[in-house]
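Sample A.
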Amino acid sequence: MSDDVDFTPGALDRAATFYVAGHRGLVGSAIWRKLQASGFTDLIGRTSAELDLRDRDAVFTFFRETRPRYVALAAAKVGGILANNTYPVDFLSENLRIQVNVMDAAREVGVERLLFLGSSCIYPKFAPQPITEDAMLTGHLEPTNDAYAIAKIAGILQVQAVRRQSGLPWISAMPTNLYGPGDNFSPKGSHVLPALIRRYDEARESGATSVTNWGTGTPRREFLHVDDMAAASLHLLEHYDGPEQVNVGTGTDVTIREIAETIARVVGYEGATEWDAAKPDGTPQKLLDVSKLAEAGWTASISLEDGLRSTVAWYREHHANLRE
């Protein structure tokens, strides 16, 4: 795909207006913290109650009033497999509207740098491992979250189209499985890692003699701490320019059994772990190739054990106020 943008990345202006869409979410809040720590002085964010990003007129009015120079588009309707499989229309429609409204408004006011954050589910279900960026659109998607994936693919294509048509140096990043402070620990809506943290910590508190997990524990998954994701986001904005999305991950994976054992150790659970092999395992492996990210000069720095310790500490501190 041609790239007509003539732009050299460099340090962002710390005094410029920077809008973080979705600044209360897992990724957006981490990006906000990273930007604050990096000296940005004019950060703006709006809760969904203050600005409904599905409302096109409201979004355009917001951009015309605030005229941000930089945008991190981390707002999205997200959920686990059950939610994606049950409400595909909602995940497709709401994410498309959020993305199109924000990017159209940003284009109208000439936002200089925009980072669109997607998801590794954009890649085919049976993509070769580790998954390279050019695997996108080469095969069938995972059926349980194909509507969400299509919305994210549309976002990547809109970034590429804006680059060609308007010459704005916008970029996209595709994170692997993220975890950390602010995660969703709901029994029904959480992903595997926060679900395991809650399960093992509750077993420790109740004195349960064993914990039973789904499947065989053999599938391999890659996990990235959300603070590393935030650091990578700023790094890409300052060091990368190109039409192709950039995978963001650690480049290494662990089995579900290994992650369960590590979580049990971190939370202090000393009972037994059982595996219900009658339950589904899911995809055997899902690992991102992070060569492009490494070429841009960034690698993850938070170890899985250190990241889990900080996440467990956050979970225990906020346990009483977490959503069910």
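Sample B, a different protein:
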Amino acid sequence: MHPTTPLQSAAALPRDPFLTDLRRANAAFQVRCIFDVGANIGQSTDRFRRACPEAIIHAFEPIGQSYAALYSRFATDNFVRCENLALGAKAAGTGLMRASGTSTDNHLLNEAPRPGLPVEMVQMTSGEAYCERHGIEQIDFLKIDAEGHDMEVLRGFLKLLRQHRIAFVQVEASMNPGNQRHVPFSQFTQLLEPMGYYLFGLYDQVREIRKGQPALRRSNPVFVSQRLTPWPKPEPRRR
């Protein structure tokens, strides 16, 4: 076993806004298993690691250069499992991705790449297949940042979602019709609400100016299972 890497100081990184809200809402809720899908070089993994020091984090990054940086960062940390994989709807396969160094804009391609675009063939699996292979029964926080392919990743977890074996789900969503890069927020609610996942909060909101008019471009909505162990009611605010 590798020794566990010491956590970075509290001043080293910003807090994760969702996990901060979760701790404030219910400090007793135990986060033991986190999936960081689209981990890049470990920016969010770092935040999760510090916020939930006893959780096992499965960090997925398919691009070779980004994965190398991610693995180097957590190679001696027993609590982080780095996986050189892309997640999707199918249990096995490959995909072609834009591969511009360690850019956070790298993403799966739906069509032939334009000439000169750096690309990389990556290995793919589904969340369900990965969980079955590794004996994972419960995910407390599933974070997905797949640059427009979040819905395909989510569909790879459908069995676990229907069984409410995932407590919280975070995706990246388009918040206005002009943003066609990301999956529309309404598509996520249409998929998740009938299964009993309701909106918990909107995080990392990014606004834009389109044709001189302001709008919310994208955000990271978090959905919560409605089958959790009952939470305590919040104390009434004092006037």
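Observation for Sample B: The chain has one domain: 17-92+126-217.
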